[in-house]
Amino acid sequence: MSKNQKKLTLLGEEILPGQSKTLYLELARLPTATKLKIPVIVCRSKKPGPTVLFSAGIHGDEINGVEIVRQLIVRKLNKPDAGTIICIPVINIFGFVNQSREFPDGRDLNRVFPGSKKGSMAGRFAYYILKEILPVVDFAVDFHAGGAKRFNAAQIRIVPGDPQLLELAHVFAAPFILYSKNISGSFRTAAEKAKVPMLLFEGGMSLDINPQIVHCGVNGVIRLLNFWQMRKDKDVPIASEATILERSGWVRAKASGFCHDRGFLGKFVQKGTVLCEITDPFGKFVQAIKAPHHGYVINANLGSIVYEGDALYHLSIEKSAAVESQFYKNDGQE
Fold first, then answer.
1. Measured between alpha carbons, how far is 329 from 331 in angstroms, rounded to an integer?
2. 91 and 61 part of one domain
3. Taking Cα atoms as reference points, which of 140, 27, 42, 145 lies closest to residue 86?
């Protein structure tokens, strides 16, 4: 049963059917005593339906997701024909202002859920997001990007064995669906415990807005809203069938130096394919980094300088693949 009843109270304010309001989550001040406000944009239809949350910027430097949610607002896609749409374009305002992943206390907000009312600054934000926002939500999509210079191909991450999430991931229709276990302390884990189905979108890299990634994210939202019968858009974007990836891991640098990427991001590669070459500044060596087995390249480190042990490529693993010693099983960062 939908949580979208006639009476909806959020952050202490009542939003009636047909109303739109911008509310503010105020939990802290800057050292200048200026209040820090997180805008929460709520749009309700007069017709009943699901309540859906679209959130981004839980890591302040992952701005692709912020742009996706911004476009939902400016294109009025957040105004439903039925139900309620909640948009939080930037959860981690501190990190966004400082172009940083973390909170000022050095904590990763996506590792401290469910948080604590009297805990660290990041923990308090996590606590109030769960206490004030999530209880009214039926479905959620949280938008992320790759950390540092690691560029994620557009993908939806879900836990394996959940038919409802798998169906929603296919409706969203990003190029890839990656089975990824929930991470302790993450927003996605907290949502699962609260019985709120959440899709986690990954695309692009930090401090970068990529038009193709944004286009993919916005179109995925349009498809979801039509699937939930919250909107009746005539021109629903058509997408190809998503490729399901059940296992994945990282190929790491075996030397430090310049990294010369060969451009296989998002593509299927054969075992032995040279993904990049690492060279030193003095012309002493050239080291080829090869794919240890067949798989899709779903993340590429686009940094020009890398260190030995750095994660270079996130590669899918087929069930029959033999994993070599240079390959480490890892679901990746979110």
1. 7
2. yes
3. 42
Q: Which residue has the tokens 């309700």?
A: 44
- Enclosing domain of residue 298: 247-329
Preceding amide of 114 cis, omega within 30:
yes
Task: Answer whether residue 266 is part of any domain.
Answer: yes
Domain count, the chain: 2
Dihedrals φ, ψ of 101, to 5°? -70, -40
| pTM of the model as a whole | 0.93
Residue type at 244 in one-letter notation? I
CATH number at residue 151: 3.40.630.10
Q: How many CA atoms lie within 13 A of 172 on its CB side?
A: 30
- pLDDT tens by residue, 176-231: 999 999 999 999 999 999 999 999 999 999 999 999 999 999 999 999 999 999 99
Q: Looking up tokens 């927003």, which residue turns up?
A: 187
Two structure tokens written together for 154: 């557009």
